[in-house]
Write a structure and sequence with these properties.
By secondary structure, the chain is an alpha/beta fold. It has three domains: 80 residues, no CATH class; 181 residues, no CATH class; 180 residues, P-loop containing nucleotide triphosphate hydrolases (Rossmann fold, 3-Layer(aba) Sandwich), CATH 3.40.50.300. It catalyses: ATP + H2O = ADP + phosphate + H(+).
Length: 626
């Protein structure tokens, strides 16, 4: 490959495993199918799929876990497209796409009585509508984003901002001309891409694909939705309307929030269904029925006062189901575009349409509560809301195993890759079956010291052992990652100087401070096990083997479901923990120049041999400390 040979001359390291990756990607382009590739750290997997895609001029969709990783991919594509244009004379058009809720809806924004200075300034400076690049509260984003309930196809065709729309008017047009689309895993469930039969799909960082997809499929009801989004719309029609919407959550769930836990899995939700209907669904549906009659009356009055209306309004009215076929036929229309008066009237109808969708979703959720489907998991949570002046309670449900929600049949071919890609896990959680390739590791793991403190996490002296291990690593290294499995364990290190804790600031900023020596240690949970890249000499402290807590909502419901079908859930838990453990080891070796020490405070590694094998297969010698 010309591009690859040129990069070798420019100093790219020649790697046999990367060349194997090239061949797998080329075979997918030629033959199709699904290929699962375990590509350890050091493979160069990003270039491993980008170089063949760009050199062949193959259209592709590349999906990764987070927006941060999307931006990293953007930088790699920028480098390769520059060389490609120089060598091959071909332009590579690419586009980074996020979910529609990340973009500003102009129609919703200009309907606001007061504009927001940060957004106005951004719009004046060529902003692309992405909320990530303006500093506004989350509640404002939710209120003003492109929303599928608000932006229905019926309304979209009439929207006065449809050509300027950041998402539908600009981004989707750019998508059609892009050779490479860079998306995140949550977007895969939307199936909202065009010409997929011409594209190969690359799923990178696939080790937590099922979690991302499960989170994207989570739906439900919140006190914020009830008070602000539903009651707010109701009061546009019935200003004095009121309903007690908080009591249901307080009386049924407040007692469950103990020991600083603000997220709880609900094993049986059917017992709450009757109270949910009586306190929430029935009062809101009663108000909605009154509004429906009011809206029908307003439509009749509006039409009576006019000899003619636009064809656009007439078609819109039919699709709202607020007029009969006979009434539709009787409406006289002579022009296409909406008048200003019709646009103002349409906005009132839009509020009703949005309210209708919210009420329908409410009734569908009640139905799901009553059915108590074993394949659905329920969760209740709370978080403080400044706007509400109280806790925002949420009651949500999600598919326990989201198999079938991502359809790969429409793509030219599929590559699924990660440093710890596990075909059994992909099959169990997502129903994905493909040809599996396991590439060999290339980094000098023999330079890694692996110490196991022979203590059980249940022992009384485990905490002291953990702290001693931290002090030991700090005597050796100026950079230490502390990988925890329980957020409560952060308290063990709160009095230590030179530490930073995940969540205090943006994670990428904290990682940069660790690299620069501004902090000496970084403490955290999931994101530190999976997504941190710190080169050089360092220490890694693993508090214990990373089994997910049985109280974690997804884990809780998967254990429950597996028991219900007669399977041993511990095999699932162990497989997930092993993936995370291997990812944690990978935090130490990011290049051939890296080296350091890993300390694990958990003697159970000798009981669950899979973890010990994973270490020794890398060529790492394991030593024990009493």
């Amino acid at each position: 490959m010309l591009l690859y040979e040129f990069l070798l001359q420019k100093g790219l390291e020649k790697r046999r495993v990367q060349e194997k990756f090239f061949q797998i990607v080329l075979s997918v382009m030629d033959e199709g199918g699904i290929k699962i590739v375990q590509a350890p750290t050091g493979t160069g997997k990003t270039y491993g799929y980008l170089i063949p895609i760009i050199e062949r001029g193959q259209k592709a969709i590349i999906s990764t876990g987070t927006k941060l990783l999307q931006e990293q991919l953007r930088r790699d594509i920028e480098v390769l497209r520059s060389y490609s244009e120089y060598l091959l004379g071909s332009q590579v058009n690419y586009l980074v796409i996020k979910g529609r809720s990340n973009y500003l809806c102009l129609d919703r924004y200009y309907a606001e009585k007061h504009q927001i200075p940060q957004i106005d300034t951004a719009m004046e400076n060529g902003w692309d509508g992405d909320f990530e690049f303006v500093n506004v509260d989350q509640e404002i984003k939710e209120k003003l984003c492109v929303d599928e309930d608000y932006c229905t196809p019926n309304y979209r065709n009439l929207c006065r901002y449809k050509n300027e729309c950041y998402y539908w008017g600009r981004l989707k047009k750019l998508e059609r001309s892009a050779d490479i689309l860079v998306v995140n895993h949550a977007l895969l469930t939307l199936k909202d891409f065009e010409d997929t039969q011409e594209r190969i799909l690359v799923i990178d960082e696939a080790h937590e694909l099922d979690r991302y997809i499960t989170n994207s499929l989570t739906s439900g009801i919140s006190l914020y939705t009830l008070r602000v989004e539903i009651m707010g719309k109701i009061r546009e029609f019935l200003p004095s309307a009121d309903a007690d919407l908080e009591t249901f959550f307080i009386e049924n769930f407040e007692k469950l929030f103990k020991h600083d836990k603000d997220q709880i899995a609900i094993e049986r939700v059917k017992q709450y269904a009757e109270d949910f209907q009586k306190r929430i669904v029935d009062p809101l549906e009663s108000l909605y029925s009154r509004i429906k009659e009011e809206v029908r009356y307003r439509i009749a009055s509006f039409l009576e006062d006019r000899l003619f209306v636009s064809l656009s309004l007439k078609d819109y009215l039919l699709r709202t189901n607020l007029i009969t076929q006979e009434e539709f036929i009787s409406i006289k229309s002579t022009y296409d575009e909406l008048s200003q008066e019709e646009q103002d009237f349409l906005r009132k109808l839009k509020s009703y349409e949005l309210l209708t969708k919210k009420i329908i979703r409410l009734k569908e959720f009640l139905k799901a509560m009553r059915e108590e489907n074993q394949e659905l998991g329920f969760i209740v949570s709370r978080s403080w809301s400044k706007k509400l002046g109280t806790y925002n309670y949420k009651l949500e449900c999600f598919p326990v195993f989201p198999a079938g929600f991502v359809d790969f049949d429409g793509y030219k071919g599929v590559i699924i890759t990660s440093a710890t890609a596990d075909p059994e896990d992909l099959k169990k959680t997502l129903g994905i079956v493909g040809e599996y390739y396991e590439l060999e590791h290339t980094l000098p793991y023999y330079q890694v010291h692996f110490l196991v403190y022979k203590v059980d996490p249940k022992d009384e002296d485990w905490k002291d052992c953990l702290f001693r291990a931290y002090k030991y690593l700090r005597t050796l290294y100026d950079k230490v990652l502390i990988l925890l499995t329980n957020k409560d364990h952060k308290a063990f290190f709160e009095r230590e100087e030179g530490l930073a804790f995940q969540g205090e600031e943006n994670l990428s900023k904290l990682v940069e401070e660790l690299r620069a020596g501004k902090i000496k240690a970084l403490v955290g949970l999931d994101s530190l096990w999976f997504g941190v890249d710190v080169k050089g000499e360092k220490g890694i402290l693993m508090s214990k083997l990373p089994f997910e807590s049985p109280e974690d909502p997804i884990t809780f419901h998967r254990i429950r479901f597996l028991k219900s079908i007669g399977e041993n859930p511990f095999e699932y838990q162990k497989r997930k923990a092993l993936i995370k453990f291997r990812q944690g080891i990978g935090r130490l070796m990011r290049s051939k120049e890296d080296r350091g020490t890993i300390v694990l405070c958990d003697r159970r590694i000798f009981k669950f041999k899979e973890f010990l094998v994973a270490v020794k297969e890398l060529g790492i010698q394991v030593k024990t400390v009493k």
